[in-house]
Amino acid sequence: MSASSATVSPVGPKTVHRTQSAEPTNRDHLADTASQFPKRGRRIILFCLFGGLLLGALGYWYFTNAGYETTDDATIERHVIQVSPKVSALVKAVHFDDNYQVRRGDLLVELDPRDFEVNRTIAAASLASARSKVLEAQNVSYNYAQR
Length: 147
Fold this sequence. Notes:
The protein is mainly α and about 150 residues long.
């Protein structure tokens, strides 16, 4: 007998031959229903897990965005008080933040005093110059009156 005349059936380790009868047995029916229960249980668990995650995400979004109003065409009524300076100077420090409640007498802004000191020195020099001119004018008029 030669090797070419021998026929080998193509049955591998993964191939299973089953004889199928015309009617399924009770054992086959139980095996089919038992294999469906874990799939159904997994589906229920996944559905509940997805629903819980969705509910948690919606709850987080609601609680973090509950206080914010958004609109494109609306007006907001608010009480704004304009603060205008009586003098011009550079700001050294600001002692409040946005939406800060202030009371009468609270220090809001600290100004740089160098400009005021320069202006005070200039004013004192102008006053001294004016006083000396007044004294000079008085001396001239006194000398004129004595002649």
